[in-house]
Design a protein that fits this description.
mainly beta; 7-stranded mixed β-sheet; globular; 11 strands; about 50% strand
């Protein structure tokens, strides 16, 4: 079964750091753009960050720019999201995504509709 498997979520206090990981299972996603999206209760899923195949280009939502960093290790076929200085408004289920389109397209307003593969999600809760 082809999967993207997230890990690293949890409950943290505001201002803390957290690192999410997303590993491939069942097939390789090395040649795919990878990214992170999130969905808060009662809200639509939204773009967080994307990274190109070789990791040379990254894109971020304005709400996380300067606090979150996306990276990837193609040897491990894994993508990471380093979350620093987290805020209560970062509370959401975080989803890993893989897409054959370029990273810039994943970051575009309609990019969420073209994602080829989704992970099952990992909960991040930030307390104030």
């Amino acid at each position: 079964q082809v999967q993207l498997v997230e890990s690293g979520g949890g409950l943290v206090q505001a201002g803390a750091s957290l690192r999410l990981s997303c590993a491939a299972s069942g097939r390789t996603f090395i040649g795919y753009t990878k990214g992170w999206f999130r969905q808060a209760p009662g809200k639509e899923r939204e773009f967080v960050a994307a990274i190109s195949v070789l990791g040379s280009s990254t894109y971020y939502a304005d709400s996380v720019k300067g606090r979150f960093t996306i990276s990837r290790d193609n040897a491990k076929d894994t993508v990471y999201l380093q979350m620093n200085s987290v805020k209560p408004e970062d509370t959401a289920v975080y989803y890993c995504a893989a897409d054959r389109a370029i990273a810039q397209q994943m970051a575009a307003p309609r990019g969420i509709h073209d994602v080829d593969y989704w992970g099952q999600g990992t909960q991040v809760t930030v307390s104030s």
